Amino acid sequence: MRSAKWPRSTCSCRISTTPPAASSMQAPLTRRSIRKGRFTIAARHHITIAEIYESEMVDVEKAIAHYEQAADYYKGEDSKSSANKCLVKVGFYSAQLEQYQKAIEIYEQVGTNCMDDPLMKHNAKEHFFKAALCHFIVDELNAKLALEKYEGMFPAFSDSRECKLLKKLLEAHEEQNSEAFTEAVKEFDSISRIDQWLTTMLLRIKKTIQEDVGDMK
């Protein structure tokens, strides 16, 4: 049974003020596509610009803005799957930047969208799970209420490993038991590998246990 590795939490959000040439070239193409009513093409241009900010500039906030714009264009074309992919990126980076309310709204929106799509329904649990984690970082009670809400909206969520992990983490947090928290994470990781984003969120939650214990001393 593998043990969960807890790599050091990192979030490189360096801001650059000099736009890359590729991004500058994409902007006129985007405007031209919009004028011609080719919103799907315009959305793709915004995704390209977002990816440039991700990789070349590491400018997360600008990448978020372009993914949001791409999602809007896809929604206008009723391309829900493509819009969801862009919104997931927005939620991912918003949480990293500690913009938790925005991330929650995005993940709830995408989770609800997935519930209504037979082909994407199985993905809803992942988005509700991430929304609940963002709630958890902000406030334990919020996380409990959100979990009840998601179980009511999507009964299949109750039987998921993600939901069971959340309940164990909430119990460990309520008892201020960091060891039980870590064991729950290790158990989950032994079956479903925990990625860097999830590791970062879990470490932020675990830190609140340590802070609360310190406050009581």
UniProtKB/TrEMBL annotation:
Asked if the record carries the keyword Membrane, the reply is yes
Against Pfam families, the record matches this protein to: SNAP
Assign the protein's first listed, main location to one coarse class: membrane
* This protein's UniProt keywords: ER-Golgi transport, Membrane, Protein transport, Transport
- GO molecular function of the protein, one example? syntaxin binding
User: Which CDD domains would you find in this protein's record?
Assistant: SNAP
**Superkingdom of this protein's organism:** Eukaryota
Single biological process term from Gene Ontology = intracellular protein transport
Signal peptide residues are none
What are the annotated GO cellular component locations?
Answer: synaptobrevin 2-SNAP-25-syntaxin-1a complex; terminal bouton; vacuolar membrane
SUPFAM superfamilies for this protein: TPR-like
According to Swiss-Prot or TrEMBL, what is its membrane topology?
Peripheral membrane protein
- Keyword field contains Nucleus: no
Where is the protein localized?
Answer: Membrane
Q: Which family does it belong to?
A: Belongs to the SNAP family.
Function noted in UniProt: Required for vesicular transport between the endoplasmic reticulum and the Golgi apparatus.
Q: What is this protein called?
A: NSF attachment protein beta
Please tell me the species this chain comes from: Paramormyrops kingsleyae
